[in-house]
């Protein structure tokens, strides 16, 4: 791909930004909640089930009960931590990466790629941005100090993320005052799922472009370990000991004569 009409420093910056995103998105993709994408999609859609109870004699509705399947809060909280950099208002990483992709592929005549990038941008704006249209609202009953009011799911989700989880934001919690943490979490769970799905979707577009030779990114971004995993921490070690107060050698300096390799005498003192 030729980028001769774009300054080299701009191309380098675009590649670096996309590479950093790849590392972040792969970490999101590796989360346990992303193992089953169908479930993650369902979570992002905020699907709810309702049961309607009817009096058989009068045919009147006597009760309606709703339910929603959500993951444990602790599990979603860890996913929230992984998607958090994508939600920083002063970073706008997702839009920045989309812009960088446009920079790196600006000479590529591929309508499907252009449509995919535009769809990702539109979906983020429609389903994730705080200014998006509310999915639902909750009514807060009037109190002695405040009238009844509505709070939408966006404000509730922000209260959980910024008030309950990461910043203990008083402002976020005040906006959801009168609504308990369960309701705040119920609003946040679909949002976090949608952010994760958006990251994975863009990651797959980046992968396809990289495999097609369009981006020129470092392969390290695609193969470097991004999560710890379950393997035990085992490593080779050399242990030496010295009397208290012995000078620690400078980096690269050999141990002095006061340092003794660990041996049976130390492990089994007489």
Compile the SSE list and pairings.
Elements: H1 8-29, H2 37-44, E1 49-54, E2 61-67, H3 73-83, H4 93-104, H5 111-127, E3 137-140, E4 149-152, H6 153-165, H7 170-175, H8 181-211, H9 220-223, E5 240-241, E6 260-261, H10 264-267
Antiparallel strand pairs: 1-2, 3-4, 5-6
Mean pLDDT over the full residue set: 90
End-to-end CA span: 72 Å
Number of helices: 10
* Total domain units: 1
Could you give the order of strands across the largest sheet?
1-2
Categorize the overall geometry: extended
Structural class: mainly alpha
Helix content: 40-55%
Strand content: 5-15%
Q: Describe the largest sheet.
A: 2 strands, antiparallel
How many β strands by DSSP?
A: 6
Question: Could you tell me the radius of gyration in angstroms?
Answer: 27 Å
Regions with little confidence, pLDDT below 50 for 5+ residues: none
Q: What this model shows, in words?
A:
The chain has one domain. The longest helix is centred in the C-terminal third of the chain and has 31 residues, at about 180-210. The mean pLDDT is about 90. The chain has helices at about 10-30, 35-45, 75-85, 95-105, 110-125, 155-165, 170-175, 180-210, 220-225, 265; strands at about 50-55, 60-65, 135-140, 150, 240, 260. The chain is mainly alpha-helical.
């Amino acid at each position: 791909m030729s980028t001769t009409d774009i300054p080299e420093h701009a191309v380098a910056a675009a590649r670096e930004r996309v590479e950093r995103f790849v590392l972040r998105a792969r970490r999101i993709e590796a989360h346990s909640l992303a193992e089953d994408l169908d479930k993650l999609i369902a979570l992002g859609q905020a699907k709810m089930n309702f049961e309607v109870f009817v009096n058989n004699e009068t045919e009147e509705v006597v009760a309606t009960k709703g339910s929603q399947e959500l993951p444990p809060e602790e599990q979603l909280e860890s996913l929230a931590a992984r998607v958090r950099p994508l939600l920083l208002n002063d970073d706008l990483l997702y839009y920045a990466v989309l812009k960088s992709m446009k920079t790196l592929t600006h000479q590529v005549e591929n309508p499907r790629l252009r449509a995919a990038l535009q769809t990702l941008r539109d979906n983020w704006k429609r389903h994730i941005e705080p200014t998006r249209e509310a999915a639902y609202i909750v009514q807060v009953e009037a109190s002695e100090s405040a009238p009844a009011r509505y709070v939408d799911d966006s404000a509730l989700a922000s209260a959980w993320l910024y008030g309950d989880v990461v910043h203990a934001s008083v402002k976020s919690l005040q906006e959801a005052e009168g609504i308990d943490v369960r309701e705040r979490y119920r609003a946040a769970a679909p949002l976090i799922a949608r952010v994760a799905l958006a990251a994975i979707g863009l990651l797959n577009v980046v992968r396809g472009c990289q495999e097609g030779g369009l981006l020129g990114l470092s392969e390290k971004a695609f193969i470097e370990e991004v999560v710890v995993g379950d393997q035990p921490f085992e490593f080779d070690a050399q242990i030496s000991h010295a009397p208290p107060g012995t000078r620690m050698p400078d980096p690269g300096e050999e141990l002095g004569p006061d340092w003794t390799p660990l041996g049976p005498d130390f492990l089994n003192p007489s």
